[in-house]
Amino acid sequence: MGQCTSCTEEDQEIQIEESQNASKDQYWKTPVNKLTKKFIPDDKKTEEALGDVEEQINPKRVQLAFSKKITEKYHKRKTVASIDDWIPSQKEEPESFQEYAESDYNKVSTESHTVYIQPLDTSMTKEFLSTCQKYCLAYFYPLPVVISKFRDITKSKIRNRKCLQGFVQYHSGDIMKRAKKWIPDDAYCMICILNMDLYPQDSWNFVYGQAYLWERTGVFSFARYNPEFYGEDHGMSGEELRELVMFRSIGTMVHEIGHMFGMGHCVYYECAMNGSMSAEEADKQPMQLCPICLRKLWHNIGFDPLERYQALVEASRVSSSFDETKGWYSKIVRHLKKIYAKEVLEEPFTKDYENNINETSTVKKQS
Ligand SMILES: [Zn+2]
Ligand SMILES: [Zn+2]
């Protein structure tokens, strides 16, 4: 059982030390701080973790998307800002591409390749769910992503209690047991989502979420991504708050689904698969996958990287909180097109999964 991202026994207040937070944008140019040096694999190990792309990746257009030129221009190496960050606190072993490829991860197949999102409480609007779906369709391109019919947790007999903040909290293990019965045959995985808080066992204050990788099910709560959960005086307008919660929720969702694809936490680059100890640390993570994690996903799904990036540019129009992400994807799309124009290349390479034609073409048509 993978117990995800930010399972903390206490509500932790993390202080980021400003002084140690400077070198983030200039990893390649300036010396990194001591913590980063101590906890982050060096350049050589990072290169090895990606593997010999020229030797190992075919077709050429995919190989070029993983080239050093692209990697160095668009991806920042991971830095550690504080000893309380996820990496120093958890001391997880790095997972290279090779280790992933040799692991017993759940493989996408023609029989089971649909990602299901199961909403568990009626406070999630249709608009919110459709935004989640649109983004996941591009992120896990070209797999179909389906929003399952609402199941109302408040009407179930799932164990619950009140959390410290006074809200109702549901037992995540109980939800997972039910989810095993709900998961459709053609599912690659099913992620249950809710705006109510979760706890994994009596002695824990709360948990953000949990996933059973081998049962292909997971559950995740967005409750704590809303500053109002903690009674914070956030000073945001309703619209700003909605955008923030949306951005955090989708970031969490793609991270969690990434775990369902068998990917561990990333320690190499600033990456959507970085672990985080708090919403604050999670806020600093990019929505994008680094080359190592992207290679893992590509290895499992098989997509044309340019097509996926194009789909992500379109999907990033869902909300203005994605503008920065959209800018990043747009740049890499332009750059890849330029590189491809100079080379004699094969046709776009995307595995053909039946049933997904209509859904992915909705994303594609807009581009
Ligand atoms: Zn995680
Ligand atoms: Zn990564």
UniProtKB/TrEMBL annotation:
Cofactor(s) in the UniProt record: Zn(2+)
Top-rank taxon, per record: Eukaryota
Alphabetically ordered keywords of this record: Hydrolase, Metal-binding, Metalloprotease, Protease, Zinc
Organism listed in the record: Euplotes crassus
Molecular-function GO terms, alphabetical: metal ion binding; metallopeptidase activity
UniProt signal peptide: none
GO terms of biological process kind: proteolysis
Keyword flag Glycosyltransferase: no
Protein name: Archaemetzincin-2
Presence of keyword Chloroplast: no
CDD domains to which the protein is assigned, alphabetical: Peptidase_M54
